[in-house]
Each structure stands twice: as structure tokens, then as C-alpha cells.
Specification:
This protein is of the alpha/beta class and 379 residues long. It has 11 helices and 15 strands. It folds into 2 domains: 211 residues, Rossmann fold (3-Layer(aba) Sandwich), CATH 3.40.50.2000; 142 residues, 3-Layer(aba) Sandwich (Rossmann fold).
């Protein structure tokens, strides 16, 4: 049995679901636990989904955690959720435990994850504990944090599975002490969205596709794109603006009022990956899932990395891919209609092909299967 632990953020949940679906296709029974706010995402056959009491961070700093009623969580709340998580683990009796991001991130969830890791280490059934992380980590600035991560890896984990391609980005680029755990690090390639939903007919062909998250920054990107269209060399194309469900109806109506001819505005769609492939150019932020959609296409791209609350993960990812000539990065603090139009012009002329491993889900499932087989043989 495979047990996948997920904590916060819809983007992370999407990647966890993709990996879980591939594990199920490899004939594993998969239990996926989510502790973030419930999301209406499809659950593949073979996956049993468990929803813990929801917790979320009101900003990118992750310095505060709120419950589903927007209240600060307290010791009793933490203890109750920890017990629920341990009960799920006991009832599943998994052979493999996968923690998403932890211990490289999600430090505020130690109250439930450390007891979970102790239970997994002491379980006679659980033979493999795997840390699942993205290509780029948010570097830790506080002294001792990286050392603490290494100690947790050595104490509890058998493998660190990096969902990226080391020809593009190495773990050393964002984790300074990688040499301490190098013997446990494996690269799977990028986990891409499944091509299960395609846009109807020729919809989306030869367009400019604009997307962003539901934050105030994301909304500014969408508004700036509307203003940049008449200044752009691609002004004669249709521009499709995809709006996050986290952006309220008032701001959606504002976008519609600002939009001129040749601009279509709609909510996010399940066929986003297909739209990226068909577009002439994509404008977006630089989160993991969106970047993998770009890498899985030949579409030119402009990215505006999220850069608030000292967050630099998206900036690092964008800088690396810009150095490879695959996209053009526009800094968030430099965003304007004129700078976006200039970036579009540059990206239209410069988007070099980049060979990259995009079989992350398949490779991850194969590696986990092999690790489990080896552990069972050695038992």
C-alpha cells in the first residue's frame, strides 16, 4: 500500500494527485491525505482520499495558520488533527509513506508530521519513507534550518525524490547542504499534467494565453495583460484571460469592463495544459505546475514570478529557464503594460527548444516500486 501525505496549497495537491494516479496505475493501493482547504479536483480510480480538518496560511509567509473558520489554530486543534492523521496511518498500514515538501518545507506542520514519521519508522509494515519535493526549494535563511532538515532526512527517510531534471536545476541550487544527503537523492523528471482533457475543436489555437493565481499580485498580472495588448506586437491575436476562482466576481467584472476587442475572459479551465500547447504565447507566473505545462509545449512564454514575503522559489525557477533561453522573465516590481509588451516581443523571437525529462510521474512510480521490492527482498 502507498500512502501519500499532502498538506497545503492546491498546486501541491494537483501534483500529489498526478503522482498518486500513476502509483495506482502501477497496481498500488493509494491513500492520499490532504490537510489543505478542500478542492474540487478529480480523484483517479484506485485512490482513497482522506480530508483532514483544513488549515491554510493567509499569506505567503506561512507564519500563521488558520482553520476553516479563519481562526488561529491552537494546541487542542493541533492535537486533534495529529490524532486523526495517526489513526489514518494505523488503519492504512502502508508499506510506503510519502511526505510532500516536508522536511524541506511545511515546518509549521511538525506537530503532526514528526509523530507520523515516528509511527512509520516504528511500523513493521512501512518499509520505505520518501520525501517528495519540487525542482526548486525556497532557500532557508535562518541558521540551523538546513542542518535540521538533514538530520530529519538521516533519521527517518530512505529517499529524497526530486521532481525535476538535474540538467535544468539541481537540488544544490536551492539547498546548500545537499552533499550531506546526496546518497539519498534521486531525480524523477518533472511531473506534468495528464492530457486527459483537450480543448474542443480548434479552440485556443494561435492565441495569447494569460493566467495567474488568485492573489492581488495575480489580479495585477491579468489587468496589466489587458492593458498591454494594444501595445504588443501580438495585438491582432485573440487574448484569452483565465481567472482564478479565488478572484471575486467584483474583480472579474472589472476585468471584463477593461477588456477591449479580441480579449476573452473566463474562469480557469481543466484543459489549461491543452490551451498552453495551442497558444502562440503564454503569460503566467512561474509556479511548478504552470512551468511544467510550458515545458511540455513549444509555446513562447513570459513569466512574472511571485516574489512576496521573501519568496524567491519562482524567481529562481524562472531565472534558470531564462538562462536556457526557454522563456522571458519579467520581475514583479517592474510590471507595467509597457514592460510586458517588451517582454512579449522578446519572447516571441527567443524561445529555444529545451530537452527536459517530463516523465516524472511514471519514473517516480517505477522507482518507488523498485525501492519497495528491494526492501521486501531484504526483509
Amino acid at each position: 500500500m502507498i500512502y501519500v501525505q499532502h498538506l497545503l496549497g492546491v498546486g501541491h495537491l494537483q501534483r500529489s494527485l498526478q503522482l498518486a494516479a500513476e502509483l495506482a496505475r502501477h497496481d498500488f493501493e493509494v491513500d492520499l491525505v490532504s490537510g489543505g482547504r478542500p478542492q474540487s479536483l478529480p480523484i483517479a480510480q484506485g485512490i482513497k482520499f482522506h480530508q483532514l480538518p483544513a488549515v491554510y496560511s493567509p499569506d505567503g509567509s506561512f507564519s500563521r495558520l488558520l482553520d476553516a473558520n479563519d481562526n488561529e489554530i491552537d494546541a487542542d486543534w493541533r492535537d486533534g488533527r495529529k490524532q486523526q492523521l495517526l489513526e489514518i496511518f494505523t488503519s492504512c498500514a502502508p508499506q510506503v509513506l510519502i511526505t510532500e515538501s516536508f522536511p524541506f518545507g511545511r515546518r509549521m506542520m511538525r506537530f503532526e508530521l514528526i509523530p507520523l514519521l515516528v509511527a512509520a519508522r516504528d511500523s513493521p509494515d512501512c518499509l520505505q519513507i520518501v520525501a517528495s519535493i519540487r525542482d526548486i526549494l525556497q532557500p532557508r535563511s535562518k541558521p540551523g534550518r538546513n542542518q535540521e532538515t538533514c538530520e530529519l532526512i538521516e533519521k527517518f527517510y530512505h529517499h529524497v525524490l526530486v521532481h525535476g531534471d538535474q540538467k535544468v536545476a539541481r537540488l544544490a541550487d536551492s539547498f546548500a547542504l545537499v552533499d550531506h544527503i546526496q546518497h539519498k537523492v534521486c531525480y524523477s523528471g518533472y511531473i506534468c499534467a495528464a492530457d486527459s482533457v483537450s480543448p474542443p475543436g480548434n479552440e485556443g489555437s494561435d492565441e495569447v494565453l494569460v493566467s495567474a493565481g488568485g492573489s492581488a499580485t495575480g489580479f495585477d498580472i491579468l489587468k496589466t495583460a489587458v492593458a498591454a495588448k494594444p501595445l504588443s506586437s501580438l495585438k491582432d491575436l485573440n487574448w484569452r484571460i483565465l481567472v482564478s476562482p479565488s478572484i471575486d466576481e467584483f474583480r472579474l467584472d472589472e476585468l471584463k469592463r477593461l477588456a477591449g476587442d479580441g480579449v476573452s475572459i473566463e474562469r480557469n479551465r481543466p484543459d489549461f495544459s491543452g490551451l498552453v500547447k495551442r497558444a502562440r504565447l503564454s503569460i503566467s507566473q512561474a509556479g511548478y505546475n504552470t512551468i511544467t505545462d510550458i515545458l511540455a509545449s513549444t509555446t513562447a512564454a513570459v513569466v512574472i514570478p511571485y516574489a512576496e514575503a521573501e519568496e524567491i522559489e519562482q524567481t529562481m525557477r524562472a531565472q534558470i529557464l531564462q538562462r536556457h533561453g526557454r522563456l522571458v522573465m519579467l520581475q514583479q516590481d517592474e510590471l507595467s503594460a509597457a514592460t510586458m509588451a517588451a517582454a512579449i516581443e522578446q519572447a516571441s523571437k527567443q524561445h529555444l527548444p529545451l530537452e527536459v525529462n517530463l516523465a516524472g510521474a511514471t519514473n517516480s512510480a517505477a522507482m518507488i516500486s523498485q525501492w519497495l521490492s528491494d526492501a521486501m527482498a531484504a526483509k
